[in-house]
Amino acid sequence: MTACGYTPAEIDAMTLFDVAALFSYWRDYPPVHEILKAVYRIESKPQATDARSAADPSGIGGLIARFPDGGVRHL
Asked: Could you count the other beta carbons within 10 Å of the beta carbon of residue 7?
């Protein structure tokens, strides 16, 4: 789920008109958490994750966990 409450399925189902309407709304009423991040210069640091372990030296287990149904969407 995104910070604005949309699920990945809802985002995938959005049309270009839906996105344009959302951006228009955000222009007048931006998400508060984004304003606070800008004002206080807060940057979230990406969490370094190394999926490799002694049991899975190649790290393929982490990749499988990211795509449990095996599907990778093309943009």
From this structure: 10
For the entire predicted model, the pTM comes to 0.46
Say if residues 66 and 72 touch (Cβ distance below 8 Å).
no
> Is 6 in contact with 34 (CB distance < 8 Å)?
no
State which residues form the domain around 29. 1-44
Number of residues assigned to the chain: 75
The tally of domains found in the chain comes to: 1
Task: Determine contact, residues 31/40, Cβ cutoff 8 Å.
Answer: no
43 CB-near residues (< 8 Å, 6+ apart):
37
Instruction: Say how far apart CA 31 and CA 66 lie, in whole Å.
Output: 28
pLDDT digits (tens, 9 = 90+) for 51-73: 567 777 677 777 777 777 777 66
